[in-house]
Amino acid sequence: MSEVATLIGSAAALAVPLSESQALLLLKLLDELAAWNKAYNLTAISERSAMLTHHLLDSLSVNADLLGTRIADVGTGAGFPGLPLAVLNPERHFTLIDSSGKKIRFVAHAVRTLGLHNVEPVHKRAEALGGTPPFDTVLTRALAALPELITTVKGLCGPATRVIAMKGRYPQAELAALPSPWQLAGCRAVAVPGLAAERHVLTLVAPDLRPVARPGAAVSPAG
Fold first, then answer.
1. CATH ID of 61-205, from 3.30.70.1560, 3.30.930.10, 3.40.50.150, 3.40.50.2300
2. For the segment 3-33, what is each residue's pLDDT rounded down to a tens digit?
3. How do strand 183-189 and strand 119-123 relate by DSSP bridges?
């Protein structure tokens, strides 16, 4: 079976419809990541099939959890899950945020190479950004324990924002330590094809969240 067919079939197992043109773009993203990884050490995962599973399919597994049109991917690293989701959702705008300059430079390169007009790379710490208006969805993948995660992203959030936390094992202790007014709105286990590890997608909300004032803070693209 070709790599394109494998990717399309595995995405279908996640209930994610993927066209051939989208699959080809995603595989081109892996080509670029592999090339840059040799010089810049962007990811510890270098074996092709593992990259497909751990980066592409794992990213696509949260597609159904997106809400609204303004999406922030905090701690995006080399662009995951934001870049694969942006390929799948051209009608949504994705802001990919990371404090690592080399990783954001790769994200900017990938955006140009893939012709993605709905992605804005941002080289900053998320705590330094303001969300005006707040993002509809804030994505995080293995960013931090949930209480620390909330501290990191709360400036990007409003009462209607959903924070999607991609986790391995179900984080019972972390949930018990969630700061007020944050609460768990949903959780689902995910079986990523080819990935022999637990995956849980948690949705956190804070309907009583008050705006966080950050005078002079604004989202700006990578320079």
1. 3.40.50.150
2. 999 999 999 999 999 999 999 999 999 999 9
3. unpaired
